[in-house]
């Protein structure tokens, strides 16, 4: 399947699919799927697609999932193979993962499997939590609930990444009073009001947090600022966007309290984009077998992925994909062909009889 | 002249002249001036105009100056007279001052004066120091150097405002290293780097500074912020715009040092818009007579005006105008007719024999 894996990865990176523009790539994937699935086993929902087996209740069910979209970005070598690498926007994140899914579908189209399989190709992963294309699939199509273990083929360098940090954003809003900057005593400087808060925030540091034997690191950062005013105006509004990454085992509500403690009543707080943490499902028996059979490295996921969304729906999930994590969202992104082949072989051996 | 003062103020506020769009109002003023001055006594430079007497060396020379432009703004009652007030954008800042200048020109067109007079109507006062329309006039037309005392008819509620604070802006640039906000230890948060600086800045407070018996208040404020990054990115750049208002007697260089001391080497500093302070010219004999003759209130100017620019060119200057200072740059700006008449009468009595 080596040449197929290369061919599919190249084809996929050659189809632009920046978030919000997934129609063309979804059409391409769908036209591929119809060769291997009956019509009634393919669900197209907007630009997301589910392809599923008729569930044999004597078998466990594995889901393989991948998002079709990419962030915006530049690549000078799209579709080129250089030094054992395939270049293209999304090569690592995560079109090589999609290529593995396609190759597995083709490979098992005339072979026996140990598991029922569900393949999910979905849109809009690279944007806000609320617009994510996996959400309506989970909400509307019960077939996904049959899953005993899901693999998101996000770039992990063929390591198994379990759990994931929750993430939330909060707008910390300091309000002052506008005045001419030559007479600040007639107003109140909203930027100056924030200094004690910013100091506490900067001192939050990195908190190690162990959960089911895996180490996660909680961090809280100011990522954006905004203000209302002008060159010669005492600003009457200063807004700090805080991003908080919190460990599995902590609820959204507990995480909110952590932020409120740092703010200490000195400003208004508006929470946005509340993404729960993902369960560390090392107790999942299928996962245990998977890890042991192939001697895979297991590590904590120090970022948010849709594993958390699956968690919320009661589905155990891990990240395991061929992409190079450090290539994600980089200019001239690439993926190593060797990793794609390794990833495919592991899944082939795992799923096969 | 009461009806003339009202008429001119109304006409002037009815001509829009937001900074950069002074052609129409300059044309209007020029068409007025040609009725009273010979062609060779009017200088038009872009949208600024100087009208001057042939200098009689046995007389002292007084300059009256006013800017033609306004800030952008809204006014629902443009040109209306309500309760003894004339409404319109620029009514106080400073078209009523321009109306007084026009009325004085008309009044003295067939009367004797104690002084040579120079009238300066200029563009682009409400923007950056460097674009100011008075600067090229001072640079190019030596006639202004004849001035023994200049009055800027800025809104002062008919008080004499002497000296003026210097003002400068500095971009305080904190540089960090970009990283994913789930892994901040791979980067350096430029916003977090600023906290000690911001704390010192907020603690600067208000410094009273006495100069030639007048009290000025030095203040330093963050007025704007900018950053480079995104929601889930550790920002690699955070820029704080600091505005510093410093007392007369302090040089630009000394004021720069005050800012550098607060920054304490923690960030790059780029100085912009360096406006010197204005000399407190209470020793000017003409000013002494002016103040005493009319029993006027004298106060320090707690803001920057073109008085400082005249200072730089060795010309003593004060602010003295009919506008209401608190109306400047306000929505539905107005000026009180009584103040316009009082201002005119004071200048008429002062300039006349």
Q: How many β-strand runs of chain A?
A: 17
**Which two chains share the most extensive interface?**
A-B, 46 and 46 residues
pLDDT averaged over residues of chain A: 95
The CATH homologous superfamily of the largest domain in chain A corresponds to Zn peptidases
Total count of helical runs of at least 4 residues of chain A: 9
What is the approximate shape of chain A?
Answer: elongated
Which oligomerization state do the chains in this entry correspond to? homodimer
For the record, the CATH architecture of the largest domain in chain A stands as 3-Layer(aba) Sandwich
Helix/sheet category of chain A: alpha+beta
Strand order of the largest sheet of chain A: 1-2-6-3-7-16-8-15
Biggest β-sheet of chain A, characterized? Answer: 8 strands, mixed
CATH class call of the largest domain in chain A: Alpha Beta
Low-confidence stretches of chain A: none
CATH topology name of the largest domain in chain A, in short, is Aminopeptidase
* Total domain modules of chain A: 2
Any idea what the radius of gyration of chain A is?
A: 23 Å
Provide the β-strand percentage band of chain A: 25-35%
Q: End-to-end distance of chain A, in Å?
A: 18 Å
Helix content of chain A: 25-40%
In words, what does this structure look like?
The structure is a homodimer of 353-residue chains. The first copy, chain A, is of the alpha+beta class and 353 residues long. Chain A has two domains: 2-163 and 278-351, Aminopeptidase (3-Layer(aba) Sandwich), CATH 3.40.630; 166-275, Alpha-Beta Plaits, CATH 3.30.70. Chain A contains nine helices and 17 strands. In chain A, the strands form three sheets. An eight-stranded mixed β-sheet of chain A has the order 1-2-6-3-7-16-8-15, sandwiched between helices. In chain A, strands 9, 10, 11, 12, 13 and 14 form a six-stranded antiparallel β-sheet that branches. Chain A has a three-stranded antiparallel β-sheet with strand order 4-5-17. In chain A, a hairpin with a 2-residue loop joins strand 4 (81-82) and strand 5 (85-87). The longest helix of chain A is centred in the first third of the chain and has 17 residues, at 91-107. In chain A, 48% of the residues are buried. At the A-B interface, helix 5, strand 12 and strand 13 of A face helix 5, strand 12 and strand 13 of B.
């Amino acid at each position: 399947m080596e040449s197929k894996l290369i061919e599919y990865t190249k084809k996929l990176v050659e189809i632009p699919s920046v978030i919000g523009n997934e129609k063309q790539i979804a059409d391409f994937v769908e036209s591929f799927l119809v060769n291997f699935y009956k019509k009634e086993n393919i669900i197209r929902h907007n630009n997301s697609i589910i392809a599923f087996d008729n569930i044999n209740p004597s078998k466990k069910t594995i889901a393989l999932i991948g998002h079709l979209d990419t962030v915006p970005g530049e690549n000078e070598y799209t579709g080129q193979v250089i030094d054992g690498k395939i270049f293209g926007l999304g090569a690592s994140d995560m079109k090589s993962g999609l290529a593995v899914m396609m190759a597995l579908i083709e490979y098992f189209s005339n072979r026996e499997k140990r598991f029922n399989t569900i393949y999910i190709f979905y849109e809009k992963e690279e944007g806000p939590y609320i617009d994510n294309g996996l959400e309506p699939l989970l909400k509307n199509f019960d077939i996904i609930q049959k899953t005993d273990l899901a693999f998101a083929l996000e770039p992990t360098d063929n390591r198994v990444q379990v759990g994931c940090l929750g993430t939330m954003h909060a707008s910390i809003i300091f309000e002052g009073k506008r005045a001419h900057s030559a007479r600040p005593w007639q107003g109140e400087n909203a930027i100056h009001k924030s200094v004690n808060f910013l100091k506490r925030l900067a001192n939050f540091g990195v908190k190690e947090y162990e959960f089911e034997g895996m180490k996660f690191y909680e961090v809280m950062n100011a990522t954006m600022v905004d203000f209302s005013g002008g060159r010669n105006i005492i600003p009457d509004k200063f807004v700090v966007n805080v991003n908080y990454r919190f460990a599995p085992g902590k609820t959204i509500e507990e995480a909110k309290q952590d932020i409120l403690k740092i703010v200490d009543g000195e400003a208004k707080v508006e929470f946005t984009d509340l993404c729960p943490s993902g369960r560390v499902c090392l107790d999942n028996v299928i996962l245990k077998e998977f890890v042991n059979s192939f001697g895979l490295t297991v590590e904590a996921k120090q970022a948010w992925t849709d594993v958390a969304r699956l968690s919320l729906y009661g589905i155990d999930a891990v990240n395991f994909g061929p992409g190079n994590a450090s290539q994600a969202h980089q200019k001239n992104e690439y993926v190593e062909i060797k990793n794609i082949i390794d990833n495919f072989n592991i899944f082939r051996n795992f799923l096969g009889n």
